[in-house]
From TrEMBL:
Name of the molecule in the record: THAP-type domain-containing protein
Pfam family membership, one: TNP-like_RNaseH_N
Superkingdom of this protein's organism: Eukaryota
Domain THAP-type: 6-86
Organism: Amblyomma americanum (Lone star tick)
Keyword Cell cycle (UniProt): no
Gene Ontology terms, MF aspect: DNA binding; zinc ion binding
Alphabetically ordered keywords of this record: DNA-binding, Metal-binding, Zinc, Zinc-finger
Xref: InterPro entries: THAP9-like_HTH (IPR021896), THAP_Znf (IPR006612), TNP-like_GBD (IPR048366), TNP-like_RNaseH_C (IPR048367), TNP-like_RNaseH_N (IPR048365)
Positions of the UniProt region annotated as Disordered: 106-130
Length: 841
């Protein structure tokens, strides 16, 4: 058995109290040496007197041996408390028999009384108890008289050693029977000394002489601590209730300070987008809701559908961490969106609700349409009980399998929004007559929804060119519809690709100047042999065109770039190319500025041509010059004028007229021409293709499923290998999200900066290489100073610029600075350029 389960007992001889006895408390021996010895003597156990006080600390004496006066109000003993209540052995448990005990007491009583005299003590018989003497001294209760009739004290001690009960020594206590004085008066004269001796032996305090306190006996005893137990329990209950009340008051105050879910979400809406705020609110509300009782708002459905569209596997993983709708719920929601060919009336109803709060300038939009290649496949849809995959322009299906998907989209001019309107399936290409009907039907539905289409944008497909030829001319690129002009514009990125393809196939002549693509190739061949290049983005891929590279707008824009024009001018200056190549350089420079003017995305760009069209900008004069140049371009070896040349003329006139119309009728202060291309539709096609996985050509059924996703969500991001740049647009039902990132700071230690050193002579391989080094040094210094800032300290970082004159080693910078004034290209000092060239070569 473990020591913790051993019962603790009272150390007083013949006391059977233990720690589990009801109404009894065990008190540990005190630390005080004298009191500890007094307690040990009271126990009448010889073995305890030999133990040290440290060993006696493990012993106890019960509360039956202490007076009530030695207790404090708290129920604890006073610091000077001593046990004074002696114990009397229970005759029923210690004596051999009740008869022997009674006989011994009777004999003792007979010796006290005189022969023939009755007992003088009334109440309980004396046989119920007797005096028990201490073990440390002999207590003589009876003295022998002159006649020798009195018994010895040992006879009484022997009888008392087997008794039980208690003799309470208390000066002011009443007896259970008659007093000692009364008993003594009834005894014969020879016993008066015995009574006096008995009275004198009442004080049983250890180490003290016997006092003359009256002696009493009680058959039952109630501990003083038991009298305080109810009060202590009530006090403990009161403390418990007070602590509980205090705890509940604190919880109530905390709950009052805590915000509800609605208040918390309202405080977060200031820092989060509406979609993220709705998602956080759903996570808080659905935390303790069963999956069968969850209800989702439209924003949460859109987020879940977009996430599932990106990656079904990733969506299943996110459902383990977040509260998201099940996949089956997503499928049921998508099933509610109808899969039908044509324009969606639900979309136009949505546009009408949103456009009701639009100002006039935000109602201006463009109509974009284009075709996407799909694979031929015939499938059966059991829900509408019809076959799918056939050409279809209206309710009736054609006999041929479809391999083209024609999509119509509306896009804002002043605000970046876009909205798919509908799709159709065509065999090879939609005829011009069908396009005419669909175009003006779409225009009518948009006007009925509250928008005002002001332009139509498409590429130079054969059917599109045929449609434009029936409606407008390059000299008059607009048509009046219901009293409002409708401008027809060809997509500028497609025009740029076509112009690059024609230049690589034929030579151009403008007046007496000949433009050849061979000069561009020669410049690339000479530049790629150098370690530091002036046109590092050009590669063999730009000249060895494949079907995919011919469709890349990025490759065409890099060929018609200002760096390529500057490299051509530099090579002509150092006679690395014939002087006739300067006309090609000027043409490349003009096309670069023209594409910047037709593709502006910022109000203030890197150059005036890359900035938005506004009143007093360089665009109007420049576009007029470009129109005159393109009208005089002669393509050598081509039987007729290429469509891209006429398309550029029509597009430039349409942009100028459209800007004047928007500024006068809609109050626009500037125009971003990137909103006038069809990048938004091209990006939509890229997303549809990504839904098909490794299969680049989607079937009609796959196209319908992806298009249905586009109608309900807008959480899509193009891959880095996409053909088009981001269109800066979102669905009409959502708002664009703009993220900003602060420029990192550069901390410099308080160390000495390197000083300018003497320029050592260095033999460059060619002046072209020296020009490239100076250009690279200036570009590196500009990027460093633009992206980093120095911490204020004992030294300041600066780049000494030399803008006054351009030497022979700065011809590249000269041509670039003339082409792009204010772009930030500077001519650094000679020491810095030498240092850059030394560590790079």
């Amino acid at each position: 058995m473990s020591l913790r389960h051993v019962k603790k007992r009272c150390s007083v001889v013949h006391c059977d109290s233990v720690d589990s006895t009801i109404g009894v408390t065990l008190h540990r021996f005190p630390l005080d040496f004298h009191r500890c010895r007094a307690w040990a003597q009271f126990c009448r156990n010889v073995s305890l007197e030999k133990k040290a006080p440290s060993q006696l600390r493990e012993l106890r004496i019960c509360s039956r041996h202490f007076e009530p006066s030695v207790y404090l109000p708290s129920g604890r003993l006073r610091h000077d408390a001593l046990p004074t209540r002696a114990s009397i052995a229970d005759t029923s448990s210690e004596c051999s028999s009740d008869m022997d005990c009674s006989q011994s007491l009777s004999e003792t009583s007979a010796s006290v009384r005189r022969a023939g005299e009755p007992a003088a003590v009334s109440g309980e018989p004396v046989s119920k108890g007797y005096v028990q003497s201490r073990s440390s001294q002999s207590l003589l209760l009876f003295q022998e008289d002159a006649d020798g009739a009195s018994p010895t004290g040992s006879t009484l001690n022997q009888a008392c050693s087997h008794a039980s009960g208690f003799i309470m020594v208390q000066s002011d206590h009443t007896y259970a029977g008659p007093s000692t004085e009364a008993s003594a008066s009834s005894l014969e004269p020879g016993t008066a000394g015995v009574a006096a001796t008995l009275s004198a032996s009442a004080d049983l305090s250890p180490g003290a002489p016997f006092s003359s306190s009256p002696l009493s006996y009680e058959g039952s005893f109630t501990s003083p601590i038991n009298e305080r137990r109810p009060l202590q329990k009530l006090r403990a209950k009161l403390r418990q209730l007070r602590n509980r009340n205090k705890r509940l008051q604190g919880l109530l105050l905390q709950r009052r300070r805590m915000k509800t879910t609605a208040e918390l979400v309202d405080s977060l809406r200031e820092h989060l987008t509406p979609a993220v705020a709705a998602f956080v609110e759903a996570q808080l509300k659905m935390h303790n809701v069963s999956r069968f009782g969850r209800r989702w708002c439209s924003q949460n459905k859109t987020f879940a559908l977009g996430l599932y569209f990106h990656s079904p596997k990733g969506y299943r993983y996110c459902r383990k961490l977040l509260k998201l709708p099940s996949v089956r719920s997503l499928q049921l929601w998508l099933a509610r969106v109808p899969l039908r060919v044509g324009f969606y009336p639900e979309v136009f109803d949505l546009i009408e609700k949103r456009a009701a709060s639009f100002p006039r300038q935000d109602r201006a939009c463009t109509i974009i349409f284009d075709e996407m290649h799909v694979s031929k496949e015939l499938s059966y849809n059991p829900v509408p009980d019809r076959f799918e995959g056939l050409e279809e322009y209206s309710a009736a299906q054609g006999p041929n399998l479809a391999n083209k998907a024609l999509v119509f989209m509306a896009k804002g001019i002043c605000t970046p929004w876009k909205q798919p309107l509908g799709y159709f399936f065509a065999d090879k290409a939609a005829p011009a007559t069908v396009l005419y009907d669909l175009l003006f039907k779409c225009h009518k539905m948009l006007v009925g929804a509250g928008l005002q289409p002001v332009a139509v944008v498409c590429d130079q497909g054969n059917q599109n060119v045929s449609l434009f030829s029936k409606l407008v001319t390059p000299e008059k690129p607009y048509l009046s519809v219901n009293g409002e002009p409708l401008f027809f514009i060809f997509d500028p990125p497609h025009l740029l690709k076509c112009l690059r393809n024609m230049l690589f196939k034929y030579d151009f002549r403008v007046g007496s100047d000949t433009i050849k693509s061979s000069y561009i190739r020669q410049a690339y061949e000479k530049d790629r042999e150098m370690q530091i290049r002036s046109i590092p983005k050009l590669s063999a891929r730009h000249f060895n065109l494949t079907f995919a590279s011919k469709m890349s707008v990025k490759l065409a824009a890099q060929v018609f770039s200002n760096h390529c024009a500057a490299a051509l001018c530099t090579l002509v200056t150092f006679q690395q190319l014939p002087s006739e190549a300067i006309h090609t350089a000027r043409f490349v420079e003009r096309i670069d500025r023209l594409f910047d003017s037709l593709n502006t995305s910022q109000k203030r760009g890197k150059s005036p041509y890359a900035s938005a069209i506004c009143a007093g900008s360089v665009h109007e004069e420049f576009l007029e010059e470009c129109i005159a140049v393109f009208e005089n371009i002669e393509v050598l070896g081509c039987a007729r004028q290429p469509l891209c040349i006429r398309g550029f003329c029509q597009t430039m006139r349409a942009v100028l007229l459209l800007w004047n119309h928007l500024a006068s009728r809609y109050g626009l202060t500037y125009l971003l021409t990137r909103h006038l291309n069809q990048d938004a539709l091209e990006n939509t096609f890229a997303i549809v293709r990504s839904k098909s996985g490794s299969n680049s050509n989607s079937s009609c059924r796959q196209f319908q499923a992806a298009f249905r996703h586009l109608l309900v969500s807008n959480l899509f991001k193009l891959s880095e290998s996409s053909n088009c740049a981001g269109d800066m647009s979102s669905l009409l039902a959502t708002l664009p999200v703009c993220l900003s990132k602060s420029a990192p700071s550069l901390c410099t230690a308080a160390t000495s900066l390197p000083v300018a050193v003497e320029v050592l002579p260095y033999d460059y391989q060619s002046p072209i290489l020296e020009n490239n080094i100076v250009y690279f040094a200036g570009w590196l210094a500009y990027k460093f100073m633009n992206d980093h800032r120095c911490v204020t300290g004992p030294h300041t970082c600066e780049v000494r610029l030399e803008n006054a004159a351009f030497a022979d080693q700065s011809q590249v910078l000269l041509y670039l600075s003339v082409k792009n004034p204010g772009e930030g290209l500077q001519n650094v000092n000679t020491q810095y350029a030498f240092w850059i060239g030394y560590y790079n070569l």
